[in-house]
Amino acid sequence: MINEKIIDxxxxxxxxxxxxxxxxxxxxxxREVSGLASMNICSVPSKYRxxxxxxxxxxxxxxxxxxxxxxxxxxxxxxNRDDMPKDMDLVTQYKEIMELGFDGIKMLEGKPTxxxxxxxxxxxxxxxxxxxxxxxxxVHIVFHVNDPDEFWDKDRAPSWAFPDWFYGDxxxxxxxxxxxxxxxxxxxxxxxxxxxxxxxxRSKEPQKLIELFEKYPEVCxxxxxxxxxxxxxxxxxxxxxxxxxxxxxxxxVGTDGTFPWPTKGHAWCIDVLYRYLAxxxxxxxxxxxxxTGINLPKEHKENILYxxxxxxxxxxxxxxxxxxxxxxxxxxKHLLENDSLKxxxxxxxxxx
Length: 352
Ligand SMILES: [Zn+2]
Hints:
The chain has 352 residues and is α/β, with parallel strands linked by helices. The chain has one domain: Metal-dependent hydrolases (TIM Barrel, Alpha-Beta Barrel). Helices cover 42% and strands 14% of the residues. The protein has 13 helices and 13 strands. A nine-stranded parallel sheet has the order 10-9-8-7-6-5-4-1-11, with helices on both faces. Strands 2-3 form a two-stranded antiparallel ribbon. Strands 12-13 form a two-stranded antiparallel sheet. The radius of gyration is 20 Å and the shape is globular. Bound molecules: zinc ion (ZN). Zinc ion binds at residues 10, 12, 197, 256.
């Protein structure tokens, strides 16, 4: 157990249960083993649809109130069309989840696999309205944009990127195109309180990140692997030591730990991140590479381990409004899968 205050800012739930039990306690062992002060679970559009995932996170927080949650909006119809039912448009969904007690918004819309079925563009009227609201409200967003650039190049893409994460077949927006879409969003909404996941995939071009930091005071990144970034950090260790000092207010730790996978993976990851930031040890890290700790001064280290998260999201998680949570489930249950409804029913009876 690490004897220091840490918030794991980036976790996911992708299943109802694993060998150890229900998702409802899925990160409690991680909280204990890793000695976390708190953690933030983010909605993810994967096997379970977003609405279901949001509901799971709401129940998680009811069971464990010292848990932050970031919910997602569901593109029930793609955002490049404007025929979404009026009472389910993105802004309405956003307001509903914030009012019921979420702490922020998770967006995966910038990941190529997700962006493509949405029509390939983040610059749509409905997303623009959503960004306007979130900017005005000062709501924290964890935003996954892009993926490592080698995923567009068939000669450099790792074998495990095929076929799902290979983007070089001409049907995906290009790596640079996705960044320019986000440049436009930031230009239109310069005070968006956004934390780009996975170091914004800029570890090989930190200057590009610095440009954003200098231009937009609310932009941050997280250190969630993206294992490739740690290779780049090690290759330029002295540079990054200075970088993380200078921009310590713009970086947060997170593991991407995902239930149903066992705790030992998330606990190992937070331990690697902690030792990288807080010690000068040689650490056996990602992809069997040695990572050498940069031993940051206390003030900088604390910013990255928890202070930035608290500053941006709140020093404690918001409470769930049960009546609003009930109304949310009732409103959307006709869109949920039958097997999800079966799982939700006992939770609804127990917690609501
Ligand atoms: Zn993630």
